[in-house]
Automatic annotation (TrEMBL):
It holds the Pfam family Hydrolase. It comes from the Bacteria. SUPFAM superfamilies: HAD-like (SSF56784). This is Noncanonical pyrimidine nucleotidase, YjjG family. It comes from Pontibacter cellulosilyticus. One of its GO terms (molecular function) is 5'-nucleotidase activity.
Length: 233
């Protein structure tokens, strides 16, 4: 079995449970901004629509088609207008309220802390994420993840976004390591797995839903639960 020295983790959807934390936040905002008063949608419909719009817009962001400002300004507008509100009815400040509240949520995937405790004495652990710098640090502090990681590289700090190989190379250069010494763990096949492949880094595809695709290249490893990392490493 290959010996690694450095383990690279994605953050959202891999360690920090974005869906659970986002859902809690959306339900809070539904009541805080009294959206039921419009009589057009319930809290569940609000969450489902937001999730759909946000996923689409993050896809555009990762491909460089929109910037951070456009993503933050438009996702709630698109969500609420898609649910029947007029543009002037979209509550002022709802986007900022989401950005302030969501990163303070604490939910992580099962076995996150247990696995990090297991890995930390054996490897140097790092985060490489397309998330926004100030938000990612709040998430890590809220969920008590900061203490495990030596380097935290965001797309903002290096000027590139996964799957651009230059983002991975930025981290390699920053800590003076070779691709073959590393293993990348992430949930996004294009950004995390194919991005790592492009610069010769082995990969663990974290696929808790068991999504199948015939068109994808085979990752080095694939897991459905973080606890499986103890078998690999």
């Amino acid at each position: 079995m290959k010996t690694y020295q450095h383990i690279l983790f994605d953050l959202d959807h891999t360690l920090w449970d974005f869906e659970k934390n986002s859902e809690e936040t959306i339900y809070t905002l539904y009541h805080q901004f009294e959206l039921a008063g419009f009589g057009k949608f319930d809290s569940e419909s609000f969450y489902k629509k937001y999730k759909f719009v946000n996923t689409q817009m993050w896809g555009l962001y990762n491909k460089g088609k929109i910037n951070q400002k456009e993503l933050r300004e438009n996702r709630f507008k698109k969500t609420l207008m898609g649910l029947g509100l007029e543009e002037h009815e979209v509550p002022a400040g709802i986007s900022e309220a989401y950005t302030d509240l969501c990163p303070t949520k604490k939910a992580v995937f099962p076995f996150t802390h247990e696995v990090l405790e297991y890995l930390q004495p054996k490897y140097s652990l790092h985060i490489i994420t397309n998330g926004f710098k100030e938000v990612q640090h709040i998430k890590m502090a809220s969920s008590e993840l900061h203490g495990y990681f030596k380097e935290i590289v965001t797309s903002e700090c290096c000027g590139y976004k996964k799957p651009d190989r230059r983002m991975f190379e930025h981290l390699l250069d920053r800590i003076n390591i070779k691709p073959e010494e590393c293993l990348m763990i992430g949930d996004n096949f294009e950004c995390d797995i194919e991005g790592a492949m492009s610069c010769g880094i082995d990969q663990v595809y974290f696929n808790p839903e068991g999504v199948r695709s015939k068109k994808r290249p085979k990752p080095t490893y694939e897991i459905m639960c973080l606890s499986e990392l103890k078998v690999i490493l």
